[in-house]
Recover the amino acids of this structure.
């Protein structure tokens, strides 16, 4: 998995890399840091700048956790497995219900809006009609953005990049909370019903993840169900699995594509994956599909107001048949190539636009957490356009797609109106994305792609017999592959949308070509957004130059490690917690030779203790009057393991008296005695593989030669230290040896 | 990923585990090994007992490899990427062509055979007809098994368990060679044309993998193309990726199911997976599908002899329409439950039958490598049955499936004949599997499942309006899920077979129920076969009791580590190579304090050297007359890196004179200086996670306290040492704490 990635030192996904691999020889002196390795723990989550941390998938082998799983009974384990499946089922159930709700609300609101406008138009009261339409749209959009800005800035945008980062191991505060979910639901309804150029697909994925997270922790942060069973889910690993289920359920609900949902979660969202997860996400999407099917049956009997045939089955083109022949390979390849170019162009322009927004924001404000979200209001201005467009088409976006995909309609859309549609949606798509509302990227790209495909079809004229509707479908697939760079999941989603397996080979070809072409220009749209937001996403493949740098050199560029003694003074602990921001500290001990029980005068590494556990110790005031090792039962009484699993690091409200400051704490039972370690001469590339594959939060660097006088730990690496961008700031000369990286 | 698996200490996949987790407390004395940890490196590959080794996905950071990738130019890297995609395309191309060839051959041979028999029957010469049929079938089967027995025992059986083990990191000799492939192709044609109860699906997967392996290494072992470009693929990682592509292409060719092929590789076969691989396997299967489509077009014009509509589109039931209603949920669930029970029952019985065969073989022979394969001849006897059955049905297995799946045929098959069919195929399926011919498991299970489904449908009578053909499809799906435990890939394969997306929810429910029911009884059929063959497959989830054992204790149960000095005497190296079977040796050095350059009298760990590289040193006679460190260029001239990448450990033909024995070798430049290490107190569970996630071959155990007098390495762990089965033999008391393990 690893060297392979390093071997293929070429490629496409490194956005601005220049290569000069010849310049390195083995005899070259070791690189020296010309400034310290610094990293900012801030990133944009939604539209809010947040302090981010890493998740931790390591097995924490401290005495308390060890004791807990040793005594866990079979019944408890059965409870756990049962609950796991129940939660997967509930995730599917709620996602399906909320997707139905959103669809019903959007179709009804947009329907009554358009009915009212039509009413005025038919009475030839054009001005009033326009006013009503503009007013309704403005109102709906305002509801969406005001909610986002004031209540849940994390609900803005599609949410998919953040989910991707979370599943990669980046903890994002407030990203999966109840407020975020409710604002996302209402905001989505408002924005889509207002006819903005955005879709409900991305938001549905985020909503699915929110449901999963809320179910897993038993409620909102403030009102949790204190159910004993749920405590098993209070760890990063189970939460990750649940959120993966949620995102798959969301995609399934958006496209009514169960297999596509599973594959989307696998291909685009998840970082770690295993067969068991495949099965569980599949279960969630199966539940969603059953729910959607039921509601379609109910709505078919006319009980859903103005719902009709819209919304739920997003682009039900399954009753349409397409035919094609072997000679049609030329236009098909053309669709792929142009789609790839257009897709990467879209990524490029969106990148520029988003950077422009970032620049404006940086100039405007010093304190980012307060004002930033407010800034996005300025993007509400181009709302006039939407009204024009709504008047032009007087339909929802879903219907527009359905019309464009329809077959046997070669003359229904003139080249001129297709051009207007395409250009307008390009511009709108780019600008709308910055608005502080829940906004999906799928629909705008599908709309543009469908228009582009039809235009290409019209331009090909009588060369092929491919239906114009098929051109639209393939154009949409090509543009999505060119921009989002999905292949298998997109193929399956389109398959499940069009319900025509005979289209499979042709769709595959288009997708493969479009992705290849797009990859040769820039990374996928989600990677660009991840990068812009500053989310510390760890790539599967280390950069090639990381092989030329050792973790020891990287550790030297950081401030010295802060260590604690096995039995430590309270004052030292308070001091360390106050004056550092580290989330874990190595615990050292007097070394004893095992054979003779003799102190050697040297120090040994006992393990790693988490900041959260130190805070817990202070909060519980678990202090000893003398410097001694404690018995295991003493600790167990004080610290139930499920409390230790909580991530808590705020100790401002802990007041410690000066006499307590002189007391001691035995850190041994709370220390993870087996942290993963690497030797200082290991290359960063190799350490990164370990870090990412095992899902670590901290990685200890140990010296190659351990001797009595030396500290047994020379450094700690975190996610931020292993990011290429941060390393290059401390070691700019590495850039010289920076090759391009391939898939 | 990790603790989650350990938390869920329950479940279903541990075949014979009993749980008593209460019996462990933290104060319990440390477990002691009551016998040494022994492991046999022998396993059944096909029908041949072979010596197996591990693959190695670690980045080998020795000076020579380091030098090579530092000087690799951009053009070379582009070559590499280009070649990678070309190979993926060629894998698809050849797999598609060979699948077509097999289908054409089978249909034509079986067709002429049946025509001849029909000719005699129509002349009322029954005895002659029966003789011809029996003779033809006997001949075809003999060709298949004689080839297997005498030329390529590795070609016997389905091959999928071996591929699964290979992709998990187990190297299997002769598994993917040219002889194996050719025998597999001819054997498949013979066995399937003879009408045996076996399919060509499993063999096609194996053939795809063989093609991938042969292409990757540039030809057969003896006749390789010495093309410079190909040397980049001479490593375990690239070979693994190619073979994954090959297996996906094989499934795609078997079922004409491109997405299903990708998912099968992902869900059932591969251990490591990443998005890039998803895309490349998808490309391979796309090529296969295009090839198959072309051939179908050609055959439709009647140029394929007796091919007609058979074979290639295995079970083309796409023109059949099925309908179902919400009330049909009861029979659907029933199908799933019974399918799960039957599937696990099938696994259970097959397990017993295969064990019986193993026992017979063990009694019969001492030397397993010679005689074992011959033993399987005894299973040729029940061939009379097939002739009966062929006379009964007078059709190929593919046609039987097609007939069973056909809709609107409620009365075509009587309950009696379905029973005979079902029972016969159950018995035959179990016995045929032991024959030394290429044999797929898919088709027998599909046949049984289809018959079972129809029987259930007939038994349900007028309760539901589900078509009998749909019952057959669902029955086949249920039995496959109950036996093979695939979900998503199976769902997609059935979807692509039936070309009816409306069946999706119903198929999902059946699959989920059948898998759940099956999992509660025993592991999947492939896991059972893997276990029986003794292939050291590493599971994703450590056993719960592995948390109670430290790697130090595990290391103590092994013989002491054999170490080498940085500059070592030739005689010591020869001695070590002769008298041990280890594949890597830690290299120790005099430790120097970095600051002062002073020898401390202590030893330090320089790294790990591979046996293959030591053999290379001896073969190249790279000896020094004095004990000194060499310059890097001296080594580079002697050892081109692509030669070092070869896996070579036979040095019987190396004759070393007694004066050479007294010379020295500088092992430093050939030593991997950064092997992954764990401290001795780490639990086996945690070490196993590292081992499997990173894909290691060797893992060094370092002492917790390093001091001058102690060796810096206390042990080496290999794949065999980390297998639950081997550990339990040395630490039987761990079994007491052995819980059951869930997905």
């Amino acid at each position: 998995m690893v060297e392979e990635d390093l071997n293929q030192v070429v490629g496409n996904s490194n956005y601005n890399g220049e290569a000069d691999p010849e310049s390195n020889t083995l005899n070259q002196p070791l690189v020296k840091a010309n400034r310290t390795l610094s990293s900012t723990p801030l990133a944009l989550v939604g539209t809010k700048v947040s302090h981010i941390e890493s998740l931790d998938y390591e097995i924490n082998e401290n005495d308390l956790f060890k004791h807990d799983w040793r005594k866990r009974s079979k019944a408890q384990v059965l409870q756990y497995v049962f609950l796991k499946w129940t939660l997967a089922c509930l995730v599917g159930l709620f996602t399906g219900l909320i997707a139905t709700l959103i669809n019903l609300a959007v179709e009804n609101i947009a329907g009554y809006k358009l009915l009212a406008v039509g009413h005025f138009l038919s009475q030839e009261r054009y001005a009033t009609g326009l006013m009503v339409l503009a007013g309704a749209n403005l109102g709906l959009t305002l509801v969406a953005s005001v909610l986002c800005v004031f209540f849940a800035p994390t609900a803005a945008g599609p949410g998919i990049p953040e989910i991707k980062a979370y599943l990669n191991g980046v903890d994002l505060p407030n990203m999966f909370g109840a407020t975020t979910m409710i604002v996302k639901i209402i905001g989505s309804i408002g924005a889509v019903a207002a006819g903005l150029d955005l879709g409900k697909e991305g938001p549905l994925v985020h909503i699915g993840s929110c449901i999963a997270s809320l179910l897993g922790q038993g409620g909102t942060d403030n009102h949790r169900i204190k159910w004993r069973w749920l405590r098993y889910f209070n760890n990063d690993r189970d939460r990750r699995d649940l959120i993966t289920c949620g995102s798959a359920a969301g995609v399934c609900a958006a496209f009514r594509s169960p297999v596509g949902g599973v594959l989307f979660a696998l291909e685009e969202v998840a970082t770690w994956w295993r067969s068991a997860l495949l099965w569980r996400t599949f279960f969630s999407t199966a539940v969603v599909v059953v729910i959607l099917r039921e509601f379609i049956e109910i709505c078919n009997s006319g009980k859903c107001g103005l719902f009709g045939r819209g919304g739920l089955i997003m682009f039900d083109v399954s009753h349409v048949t397409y035919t094609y022949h072997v000679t049609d390979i030329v236009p098909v390849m053309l669709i792929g190539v142009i789609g790839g170019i257009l897709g990467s162009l879209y990524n490029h322009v969106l990148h520029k636009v988003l950077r422009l927004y970032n620049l404006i924001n940086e100039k405007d404000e010093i304190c980012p957490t307060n004002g930033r979200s407010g800034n996005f209001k300025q993007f509400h201005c181009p709302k006039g356009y939407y009204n024009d467009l709504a008047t032009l088409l007087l339909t929802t976006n879903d219907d527009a797609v359905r019309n464009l995909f329809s077959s046997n309609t070669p003359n229904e859309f003139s080249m001129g109106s297709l051009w207007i549609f395409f250009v307008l949606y390009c511009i709108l798509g780019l600008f709308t994305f910055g608005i502080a509302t829940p906004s999906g990227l799928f629909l705008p790209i599908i709309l543009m792609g469908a228009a582009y495909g039809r235009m290409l079809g019209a331009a090909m004229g009588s060369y092929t017999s491919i239906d114009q509707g098929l051109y639209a479908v393939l154009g949409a697939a090509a543009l999505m592959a060119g921009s989002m760079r999905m292949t298998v999941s997109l193929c399956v989603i389109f398959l499940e949308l069009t319900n025509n397996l005979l289209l499979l080979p042709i769709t595959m070809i288009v997708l493969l070509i479009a992705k290849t072409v797009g990859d040769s220009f820039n990374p996928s749209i989600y990677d660009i957004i991840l990068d812009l937001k500053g989310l510390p996403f760890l790539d599967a493949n280390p950069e090639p130059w990381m092989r030329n740098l050792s973790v020891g050199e990287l550790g030297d560029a950081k401030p010295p490690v802060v260590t604690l003694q096995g039995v430590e003074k309270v004052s030292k602990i308070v001091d360390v917690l106050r004056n550092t921001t580290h989330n874990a500290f190595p615990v050292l001990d007097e070394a004893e030779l095992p054979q003779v029980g003799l102190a050697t005068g040297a120090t040994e590494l006992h393990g790693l203790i988490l900041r959260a556990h130190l805070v817990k110790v202070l909060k519980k005031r678990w202090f000893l009057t003398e410097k001694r090792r404690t018995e295991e039962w003493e600790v167990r009484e004080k610290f139930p393991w499920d409390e230790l699993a909580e991530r808590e690091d705020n100790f401002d409200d802990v007041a410690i008296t000066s006499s307590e400051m002189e007391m001691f704490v035995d850190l041994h039972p709370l220390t993870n005695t087996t942290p993963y370690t690497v030797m200082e001469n290991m290359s960063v590339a190799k350490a990164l593989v370990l870090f990412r594959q095992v899902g670590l939060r901290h990685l200890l660097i140990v010296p190659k030669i351990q001797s009595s006088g030396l500290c047994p730990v020379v450094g700690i690496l975190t996610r931020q230290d292993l990011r290429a961008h941060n390393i290059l700031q401390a070691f700019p000369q590495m850039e010289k040896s920076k090759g391009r990286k391939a898939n």
Q: What stands out?
A: The first strand of chain B starts at residue 42 and ends at 45. The first helix of chain B runs from residue 3 to 7.
